[in-house]
Amino acid sequence: MAPKGFTIAGHPHPAAPLAPGVYIVATPIGNLADISLRALATLASADLILCEDTRTSGKLLSHYGISTPRRAFHEHNERALSEAVLAEVEAGRAVALISDAGTPLISDPGFPLVRAARARNVPIFAIPGASALLAALAGSGLATDTFAFFGFPPAKTAARRKLFASLASRAETLVFYESPHRLPASLADMAAAFGSDREASIARELTKKFETHYRGSLGDLAKSFAGEPVKGEVVVLVAGAPDRPAEKTEWQSALAAALARQPLKSAVEEIAAAFPVPRREIYRVALALRQGQDG
Ligand code: SAM
What we know:
Shape: globular
Largest sheet: 5 strands, parallel
Bound molecules: S-adenosylmethionine
Number of helices: 11
Number of strands: 12
Low-confidence stretches: none
Strand content: 15-25%
Strand order of the largest sheet: 5-4-6-3-7
């Protein structure tokens, strides 16, 4: 049998054999060059590639001279196929999973397969690479130390508004995928729920020729996209809720009252249990309040 491998600009690269397992392989989100050498070697060496859409993935695979057999594996058949796929892995085969773009399982098929594999102790290897979520976040200019990802907001207006209302006071950067035709409605609902002054960023067509980043307040972004469906794929990022001074006053006055009743340590414990404020911060303010009382 000919050794397995892939090509880059026509140059052959051999691929080492793989241990049996499920390989979750990230593929590009637009620019075909955004794929790792390990991902290519894995796809070339696998016995089978599960593809969300065999034709879409065919373009990537033929670009890199990879002729591994493919099988369709998408949201409509993934539950039914997972057990059979795992039986193949248990029989010694290496099976790779790819989606149309980016990292499988991130708003893409694969979760039932990985759950079932973990339950059966079948080895799983994740080969990291592109994801629109992280590329958009890294380029957004919004806080990256804490963020939360919600995939696609619900298509139905009432459910979407309910979700946004529940997120209005979250302090971390909020990241959403959105379809271009729903973007105007989503931005309008976000501006209503989060406030039109809230800073936001829209990443469009990441890694592609017409990559564009829009930044501004939710109110301004909602206005500029109103009625004009954007072309291409988008990620919407919203800054976390600002620290509200009213909340600060509330826990600080509760702390002052608690200090009047009991020792500093138990007052800090009481406030830490009642408010979402770091214990260190409560302790610092308690010390300052005590010093103020003493002085
Ligand atoms: N698994 C993919 C990933 O890791 O990013 C996401 C798949 S999800 C079905 C597709 C959505 O991802 C799009 O609707 C868009 O919100 C976002 N997306 C994918 N590629 C993108 C790109 N090149 N630019 C901006 N957004 C993109």
